[in-house]
Amino acid sequence: AISQILPLVFLVGVVIIAFGYPIVYFLHGAEYLAAVPVLMLFVFITSFFTPFGTAFGSMVTAIGKPHLSSKIVLINSVINISLTFILLHRIGLYGVPLALLITEIFGYFVIGYILKSEANISFTKILKTVPNVYKHWVIQILQKLNTKLKPAIR
């Protein structure tokens, strides 16, 4: 399931990052354009790491160890709140996404280790499937277009 969701989340993230300025301008006006770089950082971080955390919670619940998910959420929350407080005061607004990035990287490696040891699931293998999912989507789209265009050509 994560190998199917991850490419979609990546794609949405890339679109939001690529069109961040026009999206923010359209939705909120020129006065919010200064916030776009911070938005892009948040979108990048969450579109890569969030699907793994969500899948981890489901997986450890499925193998009968939901307490692992609760512990990781608690630890990550403490790390994130602490780092956000420190980095916001030290480096300003960009400290907030930096705190999130550090927290997410920590959580990514911890849950990756737990999933590998508990269920023999590798994030590396999951990431390697992403290009194949995109290839599958393109083939499906081309087949549907070909099917719809054939009657129009005749």
Please describe the structure with a list of short key phrases separated by commas or semicolons:
about 150 residues
Write up this protein.
The protein has 154 residues and is mostly helical. The chain is flat. Helices cover 88% and strands 0% of the residues. The N and C termini lie far apart (40 Å).
Number of helices: 6
**Strand count:** 0
Give the overall pLDDT as a whole number: 88
**Which spans of ≥5 residues are poorly predicted at pLDDT below 50?**
none
Strand content: under 5%
User: How would you spell out the order of helices and strands?
Assistant: HHHHHH
Cα radius of gyration in angstroms: 20 Å
End-to-end distance:
40 Å
Q: Classify the secondary structure makeup into a structural class.
A: mainly alpha
**Sheet bearing the most strands, described?**
none
> Which percent range fits the helix content?
over 70%
The global form is: flat
